[in-house]
Amino acid sequence: MILALTLGWGKRRRKIKMTKKINHITTSSEKFLAHYLNTASPTGFESTGQRVWLDYIKPYIDKHIVDTYGTVVGIINPDAKYKVVIEAHADEISWFVHYITDNGFIYLRRNGGSDHQIAPSKRVNIHTEKGMVKAVFGWPAIHTRMGGIKEEPPKKDNIFLDCGCKTKKEVEALGIHVGCVVTYEDEFMILNKSNYVGRALDNRMGGFMIAEVARLLHKNKKKLPFGLYITNAVQEEIGLRGAQMIAERIQPDVAIVTDVCHDTNTPMIKKIVEGDLSSGKGPVLSYGPAVQNNLLKFIIKQAEKNNISFQRLAASRSTGTDTDAFAYSNKGVASALISLPLRYMHTTVEMCSKDDVNAVIDLIYHSLSALKDGQTFNYLK
Quick one: which H or E segment has residue 272? Predict the structure, then answer.
């Protein structure tokens, strides 16, 4: 919203345009966000987090579907022929128990793109049939690593868990076995009243944002002329698998995907490689072969019309997000990507701007509001 202020000094008068900050996020929805982020949802084991998400959106949808692998879709106007998807992915990176030594230490295998360098001294939860088992990533004390020997950095094959056991049998007695999934226990917090911090903001912030769009549509009694499929897909972190499956089931006409991208204005990131993107400056709109250019132009028009600041990113061959899965499904689906700038991706302190979250919600909401039933985005007609 633009406010025009007239300032006067004697006969001199001028107009100054100010962009009013939009805050769609309520105290109640922020409590949901904290609960959702604090609920572990590792790739392949997303059902607990999906239940939290589904319970939140149920009042705002007409029906829902859940596929075999756990992707959840809330539907508004399920009988409409023209189908529009807004999508995020629900899964978070994690680890698998891979090998238990005779003296009770546990070695791991990645489940998704888990970063081995952040692991030492982290506290974790091992998910077992008997419940959660606490453990820590051990690491040799600094005193033992000094003395002329070249210091060895954390690597995938030298990091390990210690759950306080002395033998393999003790470990197994806790319910731990090869294949148990491991997640970090770090939880949600807010920094400086303006930044969300925690693990799995990639991409449960996306799930939160599309859920908030559903809530706003319901709150504002917005009637859409098409079917809206609010989709929280599984297994993105290991190759967009959930999106591939659900795209075939929904067979949408349009897909607007939301995920995260890198804030490149923190130390040790090369802008010449990663581009110039910053938290607090608005959503990021990607360019690339999978992004349908006419749909992208349509979204940019809504951003400009509604005074929503945005940034641009060149994605090259692929976006690396569920956008690619939707775009190349069902003989081609007009798809676009709206990203949330994120600091420290794939760590336990991922950070994003609350203003950016509000702006993404606003941009998706206005894009849906402007979209017409049966609207096509074909390059040639």
Answer: helix 271-274
Q: What are the residue boundaries of the structural domains of the chain, listed by start?
A: 27-92+199-370, 94-184
> How far is 284 from 88, CA to CA, in rounded Å?
15
**Whole-angstrom Cα distance, residue 264 to residue 275?**
7
Q: Is the bond preceding 293 in cis, omega lying within 30 degrees of 0?
A: no
Contact between 119 and 109 under an 8 Å Cβ cutoff? The reply is: no
- Which residues have CB under 8 Å from 330's CB, separation 6+? 247, 248, 251, 252
pTM of the complete model:
0.93
Q: Hey, CA dihedral for 166, 170, 175, 177, is it positive or negative? A: positive
Q: Per-residue pLDDT tens for 282-294? A: 999 999 999 999 9
Look up the CATH architecture of domain 27-92+199-370. 3-Layer(aba) Sandwich (3.40)
Amino acid at 170: E
- How large is the average pLDDT for residues 309-328? 96
Handedness of CA 78, 83, 86, 90 (dihedral sign): positive
